[in-house]
Amino acid sequence: VSADGKTIATISTSGSVTATGKYAVGKMMKTRSDMYFPLLADAERRIVVLTEKDRFDQCANSHMQRPFDLEARLLAARKKASTEMTPPTEPGIGRG
Fold first, then answer.
1. What band does 7 get if pLDDT is binned at 50, 70 and 90?
2. What radius of gyration, in Å, describes the C-alpha atoms of the chain?
C-alpha cells in the first residue's frame, strides 16, 4: 500500500507448474485470490505483479503488460540468489 493509500499492489511469485511438472491448481487458486482481494479495498490504483513468465502467460489478456526488461532482471536476481546460497567450492575461495 502506498503511503497515501491510493495505490495497492500484490506480488505473485508462483509458477504454473509444481516441482513435479503438474499443473499447479492450488497456486492458480492463490493467484486468483491475490488478484481479486485488492478489489475489496478503496484504492485508485491496483497493481498485480506476476514474476513468473509461465504464470503471466496463463493469466495474460489485453489489459496486462509485462515490462520488457523484467525477464532479464528476474534471471539476474535468481542467479545472484543462487550464488549467495551456494557454498564456496574451496576454503578461502569465493562462491561459485
1. very high
2. 17
Cα(1)–Cα(6) distance, integer angstroms:
8
Does the model's pTM come out above 0.85?
no
pLDDT at position 44 over 70: yes
End-to-end CA distance of the chain: 38
The dihedrals phi and psi of 2, each to the nearest 5 degrees, come to: -70, 160
State phi, psi for 74 to the nearest 5 degrees. -65, -45
User: Which whole number is the average pLDDT over 76-82?
Assistant: 83
pLDDT of residue 41: 84
Q: Give me the DSSP letters along the chain.
A: --TTSSEEEEEE---SB-TTSSB-HHHHHHHHHHHHGGGGS--SEEEEEE-SHHHHHHH--TT----TTHHHHHHHHHHHHHHHHSPPSSTTSPP-
C-alpha cell at 6: 491510493
